[in-house]
Give the backbone structure.
Amino acid sequence: MKKEHFKVKGMDTEFVEFRHKEHNILFTRFERIRLAEETVREEARYLYFIYLFRKEHKVTKTKKTNMEMGPYNIICFNKVYHTFEEMVHNLYSILSEYILDQNEVFKCLNMVQKLDPKNYHDKE
């Protein structure tokens, strides 16, 4: 995925992509749309999304006589969280269902820290 796929004009967006074998895991952070001009708490400022895809190769029929083998992304899991802490709290159990190698799980958990608003604002 490319960053411009997640760009929304005037909105703060960020994503992290992690690949492990046939699984592609996408974590995104989108700024919430405010209904009123009021100050909001940091945790209420963003929504966090998890998408977990599995790549499968299937036979497709292009014409009456032609058959092709092509890759398809099958969605295995998706969920929306209202805070970064809520997402991270559930993340280990979700990842452990799809990734058996604990080192890979911890790599993914470390990558997700990029979406933490505390880390994001410290860089600016």
